[in-house]
Every structure is written in C-alpha cells, then in structure tokens.
Specification:
Residues 1-26 form the signal peptide. The protein is α+β, with helices and mostly antiparallel strands. It has 19 helices and 18 strands.
C-alpha cells in the first residue's frame, strides 16, 4: 500500500499539532498537517485525489490563506475506501474520497465510534450507474447474468460494485446470497483470479473492468447502467476537522473545483496526467474521464445523488453491513456552497455532456467526435494504423466503451454498438431483421 507524504519536514513532525489537522486545536503560528486519503486508481475520484495532487492546487489554496498557520499536506493512497474510513475514525485522516456505498459505511462507522464524518462534495458520477461493470474472461461462454447461477464471482463486499452485483442478480431472479458463490476480494486480487480462471466473473468499479477489457483479458457481461440508478464518488470530511479548520476544508473544495474545471477543459491532458501518476493506460482513463466519458465530474451535491445514497442503504442493511443511516445528517453542503459561491447554483443545474462517438488519433493531443457510430467507423476504416483508441456509446444505456470491444449490430444501414451481449440481444429481440456482426465486418460495412 503506497503512502507518500508531501512537504513534510523533520521539524514539522516534532510539532504537537502536525499529526492530523483535526486532531487538536491549532494556535496562531502553528503548523497544521492536513491528511488526505485518496484512491489513485479509482479514477472517478481524481479531482479530489490523483489529478488534484499532481496539479498542486490544494497546496496553493492553503498557502493563500495567510491566517497565521503553516499548512502541510499528507497524501495517503489506498486501494479502496474501507481503510480510509478506518483511518478517519481513528482520527488519522481529515479528508477522504470514495464511492457511494463506502461513503455510507463511512457515515455509519463515524457515528458508531463517535467520530462523525460528513459528505461535503461529489467527484465523478453516472446517473444511470455505468461506473460499475461485471466482466467475464475474454474466452468465456457466459452471455447473460442468468448464466452466473452457481458460478464463482469476485467482488469487494461493501463496495459500489458489490451493490451493482446484488441489484443486478435480484433483477435477474437470482438470490445474491445463495445463487452464486461470492468471493470477497480486493480489485487487483479479483482481476488476477479472473485471469487465472479461478473465478467466472468479476464485478468491480472503475477502472478495473475497462482495464481488463483493454488488455484483452475480459469482456463485459453486465453494464451497470442497465440498473438506471445513479452511482457516484464523493468527498467526506471529519466533523472535528471541519469544525477546527473550516478555512482549510474550504481551500480543499476550491482546489477540487479548480481540478474539475481543468479536467473538463483539458480532458486529454488530464487523462495523461492521471495515467502517469497511476500506471493505468491513458486510453482507459479517458474512457471514464474523457470529454464524453462514462463519468461526469461536478463537485455539487445534486439531489439525484443524495436520493441514490438513500436507496443504497437498503442494500447494505440486507447484507448486514450496517443498520439505519441518517443520510440527511451525513450530507453537508454548506462548505462546498461557501467555497464555490455564486457558481454553485450553476454547477448544480449543469447536465452531463451528450454522448458521442470519439476517436483518439496517435500522436494527437486532441480527439475527434462523431455524431454517429457509423461515421466513426468510416474514419476508423480509413485510418486503421493511426488510431490510439476509439470509443462508442451503448445504443441503449449510453455507456461509453471501446469500439473494438463492443458488440455490433447491423440494422439496415445502421451500425449500432452495445457494451454487452445482453443489451445487444434486447435490441435484436425488438428489431426484426437486425443481426450481430463482428467489428471487422462493421468496419467493412462503414467503409
């Protein structure tokens, strides 16, 4: 587990208030260390983690406070949200970012241990649930959720990906507790298990499903957007820290907004920065965080997200992971409203960008967008050796996917992409005469 400290000096470590910003009252002239827990590879939190850190915006905002304190930032990188919550409730992390289900566990654990936390902003979201995907091995014969009955499925219990798995199985008429053999594994362990053939499927959050697909190790079985329920990631802060250092929390949220604007304004460059920091392929990062990516980045705590959080409580309760959670008291938008001022209302009303087909040419710092998948295929057919990545949106869910990994359907002159065989089959069942075609045939038909 990688943990890196930024701008911590030996002298600062000797100061009584430097261990954690919310651990004690800070007097004038003291050094305050703000400890931030983030997940570098959970790339829908990058505006509060990986990208924010690389841009240095938080440190700049803290340096601009001029309130008599010297601020240091300790960035701690984790694989999932659970250890961040453990450190927060131990008083060792002030600000953390994680997915919606871990956020609820964060709320429950904070209340239980009398170290309350609050959701103070959002990072990346998808209003249909497309941030979570169930994948199988590339050579698997499984084509639908019903094929998972009696199979071994890896996921991280208590994560948003586990929530997607539970809900999807229930809709398919499969008991999520008895109908499958569920293995509770860290994302990297589950990915290795899928590659080794020791599990039949993997349900995970970003960026694992697309990474495995991009590497040719997996293919999509279930698109989380089929649930049509919002999934999102957010920022949680210790109540002690927010009370003792409101200016520092406000500085963080201002910096997060700056990082959000940078990502939205420079999606290719942002993807490259995140790729460099995480070791993930930039093509995978861009699938989620690009101009028309699966995730939309906005720090505003939209009502749809809060409503989804309330619906998620029932899933965690049924898994006996928590009891009742007072979501309304956990959500606290006063800090982000103050940090963003008059721009908050505009951000709250903003809509996700429309879906589009997109190609990333080799050697280019810009991508090309097309109104239809067929137009994209026409370009790809003429430039097959000059393509870094190409993306298309599922024709029913809108979830972006790699063009060469999509399931293609020919319906007359139309060429339609789908993330999974199941969504393609639903279309075929409703459109007589339509048929699936290979990616190569789709290119030939478009050229």
């Amino acid at each position: 587990m990688k943990r890196t400290t930024v701008a911590l000096s030996a002298a600062a470590l000797l100061l009584p208030l430097s261990a954690c910003g919310g651990s004690a009252e800070a007097g004038s002239g003291s050094t305050v260390t703000v400890t931030v827990g983030y997940q570098s590879k959970t790339i829908n939190t990058v505006t509060a983690g990986t990208l924010l850190r690389s841009l240095g915006y938080f440190e700049k905002q803290l340096n601009a406070l001029h309130d008599g304190h010297t601020y240091k930032v300790d960035w701690q990188d984790y694989a999932t949200g659970a250890p961040i919550t453990a450190q927060m409730t131990a008083g060792k992390i002030d600000i953390g970012s994680m997915g919606d289900f871990p956020l609820l566990l964060n709320a429950a654990r904070g209340k239980q241990l009398d170290r309350p936390t609050h959701l103070v902003s959002a990072t990346g979201y998808n209003l249909r649930g497309g941030l979570n995907t169930i994948v199988t091995a590339a050579d698997s014969t499984l084509t639908s959720l019903k094929d998972l009955k009696g199979k071994k499925v890896s996921t991280s219990v208590g994560s948003a990906a586990d929530g997607t798995l539970v809900r999807a199985l229930q809709r398919a008429g499969i008991d999520p507790d008895k109908g499958i053999s569920k293995l509770n594994q860290q994302p990297a362990v589950g990915a290795s298990a899928l590659s080794a053939g020791s599990v039949d499927a993997l349900s995970q959050f970003v960026a694992w499903p697309a990474l495995l697909a991009f590497q040719g190790k997996a293919k999509a079985l279930y698109d989380g957007a089929q649930l049509n329920l919002p999934t999102f990631h957010g920022v949680t802060a210790s109540e002690d820290f927010a009370r003792q250092h409101p200016a520092a929390l406000e500085a963080f949220l201002k910096a997060q907004a700056q990082a959000t604007d940078y990502l939205n304004g420079h999606p290719v460059t942002a993807a490259e920065k995140v790729a460099e920091a995480t070791g993930l392929p930039a093509e995978v990062v861009y699938l989620y965080n690009g101009a028309h990516g699966i995730a939309t980045f906005n720090p505003a705590l939209a009502p749809q997200l809060v409503s989804a959080l309330k619906q998620d409580v029932a899933v965690l309760k049924s898994a006996k992971l928590t009891g009742d959670i007072d979501v309304d008291s956990f959500v606290d938008d006063q800090y982000v409203k103050k940090a963003l001022g008059t721009s908050y209302t505009k951000r709250l009303a903003a809509s996700p960008p429309p879906t589009a087909s997109e190609v990333w040419p080799k050697g280019s710092e810009k991508t090309l967008s097309y109104k239809s998948p067929k137009q994209l295929l026409t370009y790809l057919a003429a430039h097959q050796d000059g393509i870094r990545a190409a993306y298309v949106a599922d024709s029913t869910t809108g979830t972006l996917w790699f063009a060469d990994k999509a399931v293609w359907v020919a319906d007359g002159d139309r060429l339609l992409p789908f993330v999974t065989p199941a969504t393609a089959q639903d279309y075929l069942s409703a459109h007589r005469g339509a048929r699936t075609v290979s990616y190569r045939e789709a290119l030939e038909r478009a050229s």
